[in-house]
Design brief:
By secondary structure, the protein is of the alpha/beta class. The protein contains seven helices and 14 strands. The strands form three sheets. It has a six-stranded mixed beta sheet. Strands 6-7-8-9-12-13 form a six-stranded mixed beta sheet, covered by helices on one side. It binds acetamide.
Amino acid sequence: MSATVGFAQFEPLYAEPAANRDTMSEIAESAGQFDLLVFPELAATGYELRDVVHARNIAEPFQEGATSEWARALAVESRGAIVVGYAEKADGVAYNSCVLALPNGAVHNYRKIHLFSREKELFAPGDAPPPVIDTPAGSIGLMICFDWFFPEMARTLALQGAQIIAHPSNLVLPYCQRAMYCRSVENRVFTITANRIGTENQAGRALTFTGQSQILDPDGNTLASAPADAPRSTLVTIDPELAHNKSINEYNNLTNDRRPSLYDV
Ligand code: ACM
């Protein structure tokens, strides 16, 4: 089985969700036929939401919210899965979430577990384990940006059978793209990091996002990568089944060789 998967790196406009959804529709339309297209974290709103009140006001519900409905319609129409980050409103708080919308109209949600820096002032941390969803493009695990810093996340997704980790991001630290090499190799999975570009200065500090979105295979090969400061959408065709082979050599298998009784993670 093969799947055509990709990232869409762009610069969201601050607090302009409708305009950002229109931009993403245009990107998807011109991308070519895909089975999975991953957009960045908080792609609908931009990143540096002014304060917690603004975050709660601009956030949308998952069920029947504008961004999840947009993603559902786009997935059905394009016959390809969509992952996109948005601010989710639920229980009187905002979450930094992403949806995975499928061509059959199903939509899944994930709330970022590990909040980065000032996100802790704006969002509540995710309250459920990261999901793995079987799709026509393969088994897709979800994590958001700074979740990469916790190897347990990618490991948990891989142990649940993820073949592809979809990783919407707004990266500012310089390490992640290189570190994702390890996440791919140590779990033998495909990873798609969809990062944004541009600079925001809404909250008294300038943040420059590092672009360099990338797709890595289970051997850590870079199948696609984007520049640091320009929009870029790239699709590659992969065989997701390759991620089921956890064998390293005739003696070692990364799943079977784990010793959780000794390290309890
Ligand atoms: C991040 O988690 N947006 C750095």
